[in-house]
């Protein structure tokens, strides 16, 4: 009986009906005819409600539903979720589906309303975009069913306590991999880099295609084949690349829902996958105030799983990162000259100058690329027209920050350190561009 009462709900139509009856009873106090009409309507309401409850509860378990979740969600990307529903009522039903989302989304009114023909099956799809890594717990899937009378609803509950982990953006990683394999990276903003000379390994001889470098024509093969033939080269392989991620408090700054750390993590996963696709060795280093962790560089495709699992657990420690400890750690762990992609964020020239001697020492042994971020929150201020003294002051400060970022780039370049100053949203594309550029120039 308790279970029955818990699953029955009164609708707005019922309360409107009851309210109308109450008004008629009040009027019946002054005009008896309204009182008689109120009693008739009250009896009709009781009969209709009993019929409604019987229609909804007599068939037993007349609704089957399930929430179909992927094995894991991709951080920062829209992830598809599907609700499948089948009902066996012999009449058209009204539906109100409330899906209890994880608390990280802060949504308490995620519902779908509609109707469904007799004994039909349907699927409802929606997308969720998580902005934090970790375990997400879904609550119950609540289905509220009403008959054509619409006075009451019956509740069904399914799929309680489903959990799914949110990993770094593997959707973005697969997207870049697909374009890299099909040689269409320029379609998503990856620049086509002109190769300087022939510093690559010989791959094969193939037919000439319009656009090929005429200096690559193999005249002996052309004479034998009777058609223009060119030498095709491939990039040197087994080169070592490390993504080095600063987990200090400077990476806690949020942009469009994601922290800078999450942008760096997503980019590291994407560039590691591209490096492994190019048959280079990819590794990972994270550092903060307390210590450093390393995933040694390897070229096996299965190594990407190790990098992904390590990135899943990375978090900031809200402290100032220790670059001296990073320098000592890298000297002891990395003996081969490598490409170092350092994800950090310099807010001022002074903060960069304190770390510059360490960066110079790293650049003397490795090819160092320092990656930091444009503050996109300042864009509106920089483009606005100030109308008061306060707005002039705020815009001046914004221009100062913007000027200092460009000054940091120039100072690092003067000391032989490659740089990427990028919007957080463009981080992965700009990082892959730089990686392909350095390989094309034979600098790695």
TrEMBL record:
Domain DUF58: 204-376
Coiled coil start-end: none
Membrane-spanning ranges: 12-31
Keywords: Membrane, Transmembrane, Transmembrane helix
Keyword ATP-binding applies: no
Highest taxon in the source lineage: Bacteria
Record's protein name: DUF58 domain-containing protein
UniProt source species: Fodinibius halophilus
Lineage, broadest ranks: Bacteria, Pseudomonadati, Balneolota, Balneolia, Balneolales
